[in-house]
Design goal:
Elements lengths: L2 H18 L2 H14 L3 H14 L4 H14 L4 H11 L5 H9 L8 H14 L11 H24 L20 H20 L7 H16 L7 H12 L17 H9 L14
Helix pairs in contact: 2-3, 2-4, 3-4, 4-7, 5-6, 6-8, 6-11, 7-8, 8-9, 9-10
């Protein structure tokens, strides 16, 4: 058999095999290739097709979530490493802001939100604890939620690396209702649950940072939940070149030193699953 015929046969067989492969598998492989190449829009298109074909496909959801995060400028592993490497829980809004601001703009934050809702809403069934992807899924979702908690308000308050352009009132003041306070609190607790489910403990830097910031914000907020006014003050105090010049607005925050005092008093809780009583 000559080489030309052999080549034709190989092409035909390859085409037949490709045609016989489930379309979802072909889409997810194409999405992975695009994701690895940094072609996030194509990865989103292909992974969306795979997840639409099977809304319980955890693998497709994780690839789609990663593509949205990538398009938002969030490199998950490098950002979580930067968070852990700071070793300074008192300035985490500033540290994460500085790590992301070169790549993430305010108008790209919806993609970060989409990376999260892909895993919490579009995917209709989370992996069971016995699933091989269980820990990876919870690490990805918990880390994205943690980044959003710190990044979204700080980048909104200071959309550039210009320290003179800080205005924490850009954070939605109309959302400061009792319902929103409880939702912010629930976000912190859900992130903690996810990271613990991913195999982390209280000794992990990311968990420690999350819990101490939660403790400070919760203790300085009046009533249940986390007050957006306190959150705005903490962000402005951390981002300002000179915290002594910041005029705080929340009733229970006299000045930026109040946050430092509260950090000293907040001990990191144990490594059991988070709930409101533990904090």
């Amino acid at each position: 058999m000559n080489h030309r015929i052999q080549s034709v046969i190989v092409v035909v067989i390859t085409a037949i095999l490709a045609a016989c492969a489930p379309s979802g598998d072909a889409d997810i492989e194409a999405a992975r290739f695009a994701l690895d190449s940094g072609d996030y829009s194509t990865a989103i298109t292909k992974a969306t097709a795979a997840l639409t074909a099977d809304t319980t496909d955890v693998d497709a959801a994780m690839v789609l979530s990663s593509a949205y995060a990538g398009r938002a400028g969030v490199r998950l592993l490098s950002v979580t490493a930067d968070i852990s490497d700071t070793g300074n829980t008192e300035n985490e809004f500033e540290a994460i802001h500085d790590a992301l601001i070169a790549n993430v703009a305010v108008d790209e934050l919806p993609d970060l939100r989409a990376a999260i809702t892909t895993l919490t809403t579009t995917l209709t069934a989370e992996p069971a604890a016995t699933d091989d992807l269980y820990e990876d899924f919870n690490f990805q979702l918990g880390s994205l939620q943690a980044i959003e908690i710190f990044a979204a308000p700080s980048i909104t308050a200071q959309p550039s690396d210009d320290e003179s352009d800080i205005d924490s009132t850009r954070i939605d003041e109309t959302s400061d209702t009792e319902t929103d306070k409880v939702e912010i609190l629930a976000d912190f607790i859900d992130v903690d649950n996810r990271l613990i489910a991913a195999g982390m403990t209280a000794d992990d830097d990311l968990v420690d940072i999350l819990r101490k910031n939660y403790c400070v914000l919760h203790d300085l907020s009046a009533g249940d939940g986390i007050d957006l006014g306190v959150l705005r003050d903490q962000i402005e105090c951390q981002l300002a070149a000179n915290a002594d010049t910041v005029t705080t607005t929340a009733a229970l925050v006299a000045n930026c030193a109040a946050f430092a005092t509260e950090f000293d008093e907040c001990a990191s809780p144990g490594a059991t699953t988070a709930d409101a009583a533990k904090f």
